[in-house]
Write a structure and sequence with these properties.
Layout lengths: L1 E6 L8 H13 L6 E3 L14 H4 L6 H13 L2 E10 L13 E8 L5 E6 L10 H4 L7 E5 L2 E5 L8 H9 L4 E6 L6 H15 L2 E6 L3 E2 L2 E2 L5 E3 L5 E4 L5 E6 L3 H9 L16
Parallel strand pairs: 1-2, 2-3, 7-8, 8-9
Antiparallel strand pairs: 1-14, 3-4, 4-5, 6-7, 9-12, 10-11, 12-13
Family: Belongs to the carbon-nitrogen hydrolase superfamily. NIT1/NIT2 family.
GO molecular function: acyltransferase activity
Pfam families: CN_hydrolase
Length: about 270
């Protein structure tokens, strides 16, 4: 499987419309890939809190339309990072009409929106995302011809229990868009590898570059294999990271070093 991570710069002097058009062009340029991944909240900016309400859109809004067309034109599976979603009427009562969510979009090569994931863990403690957005309620593992993709977003990386649940749901490749700050870059690099090792899965972690909301982004998008080896890592600036991934390696690593089989402490029955 050929994967391309689009580490795009998110800066306040570029309009959402212009960045959407630029991102679509970058996706179309990756027609040799099987899976293309964009970062978190690349339309509005992960720390540009004041811009979120104006940038909010439904999951069938302009960003989804542009990304669906780009996925179709390139013939790729596209994890289009995340958008600021405004929940429509008739939303799940656990969530709520009119609320904002940090929502990831996964398109197939025909441009069909196959899965969405609302970020479960909201960053900010008593500020920012933690108060401005609702929390997702569902673990999402997407069955695709490329393998089962486990979806998570940025701050979710700090909660290993979510990734164990994704493994239980069959995830072999963990896709993590992010808007991680540069000041905690080493936490990012550590946690991406840790999730790969403990889950014995690939992690495709795509981070923003640039600066928004006064916060410099970490960049350093990474692809890590099920043994914890870094297959590719970007620098701090805008960059396209391309890497070959062997999905069959997940089963081999899990068979050769069957640590997941030895799980106890009230978790699912060990696999024999």
């Amino acid at each position: 499987m050929r994967a391309s991570l689009l580490q795009i710069a998110v800066e306040p002097d570029e309009s959402v419309e212009d960045r959407r058009e630029r991102a679509a062009a970058l996706v179309r340029a990756e027609s040799d890939a099987d899976l293309v991944v964009l970062p978190e909240l690349w339309t509005a900016g992960a720390f540009a809190y004041s811009a979120w309400s104006d940038a909010a859109e439904p999951v069938d809004g302009p960003t989804a339309g542009a990304m669906a067309a780009a996925a179709r034109d390139a013939g790729v599976w596209l994890h289009a990072g995340s958008i600021v979603e405004r929940a429509p009427a008739g939303s799940d009562p656990l969530e709520g009409e009119g609320r904002l969510y940090n929502t990831s979009l996964l398109f197939d090569p025909s441009g069909t929106l196959r899965h969405t994931y609302r970020k479960i863990h909201r960053f900010g403690f008593d500020t920012g995302e933690a108060v401005a957005m609702g929390a997702g309620q569902r673990i999402v593992a997407a069955d695709t011809p490329l393998g089962t993709l486990g979806l998570a977003t940025c701050y979710d990386l700090r909660f290993p229990e979510q990734f164990r649940l994704l493994v239980d749901a069959g995830a072999e490749v963990l896709v993590v868009p992010a808007g991680w700050p540069a000041g905690r870059r080493e936490h990012w690099r550590l946690l991406v590898r840790a999730r790969a090792v403990e889950c014995q899965a690939y992690v495709l972690a795509c981070c923003d570059a640039g600066e928004n909301g006064g916060v410099e982004q970490a960049g350093h998008s990474m692809v890590v294999d099920p043994w914890g080896e870094v297959l590719a890592e970007a620098g701090a600036g805008e960059e396209v990271l391309r890497v070959e991934v062997d999905p069959t390696r997940v089963a081999r690593v899990r068979a050769d070093f069957p640590v997941l089989r030895d799980r106890v402490l009230g978790l699912p029955e060990p696999r024999r």
